[in-house]
Amino acid sequence: MILTGEGLVVRYPGVAAPALAGVRASLNQGELVSVVGPNGSGKTTLLRALLGTTPLAQGRVELEGRPLAEWRPRELARVLGVVTQREEILFPLTVQETVELGRYAHLGAMGSPGETDRLAVAEALRRADVTPLAGRRTDTLSGGEWQRVRIARALAQNPRALLLDEPTAALDIRHEMEVFELVRRLAEEGIGTLLVTHHLNLAARYADRLLLLDHGVVVAERPPAEVLRPEVVSAVFEWRVAVTSWCDGAPQIVPLKPGE
After folding, report:
1. How confident is the model over 243-254, as pLDDT tens digits?
2. Is 132 left (phi over 0), alpha (psi -120 to 50) or beta?
3. Which domains does the chain have, with CATH numbers?
């Protein structure tokens, strides 16, 4: 087990109901877990709680069996790679320079990258399929290219786990698929990957396990076919759906028109 959260409770000031209410979450090496649920269900809050960036009212988070609070930031960055939901390009760099920033936690006292760092950056560019973009400025990239560069930067940390918050938000079909193909491949290479997404059908096809949240509570946490049942999805999303199966056996959600 790489990452675990037990009994996680998060409360925001001025809000009566907790954003998370006793949530348990876990991530194993080589596993792709998708966190799904309606808007406001606690998906991003869960990610932040697991990262230690949102204070817990109750519960604990452990990374590799050690309390998260005991990890120093630089030490933590060598284990966890993070891709947040949004990131503006304030100071355009080249793709190469952007990915090199992922090596910060590994640099020595002098802060000068060595051969190990250069090899790690080259490998991260390759794994994220952005090597041909290395010389491009980040402000010239498409949305899909920028997302893959951000993933490459996280991979340059040589993490054992990767946490991504809505990495396909605002992307078209091709770029959505490229990102899901990439994170699936990374999981198969041994990186534990926790991905927050609104795309139930893509999550069902790519994830090993779904964690379905509603109002800060885990409704179900099992393989996709055991979670995406019509009665469960209809109740959580407050809209009637049908569930069919794709040719690979993955469940696929079809929202129904009124009266169907």
Report:
1. 999 999 999 999
2. alpha
3. 1-79+159-228 (3.40.50.300), 90-158 (no CATH)
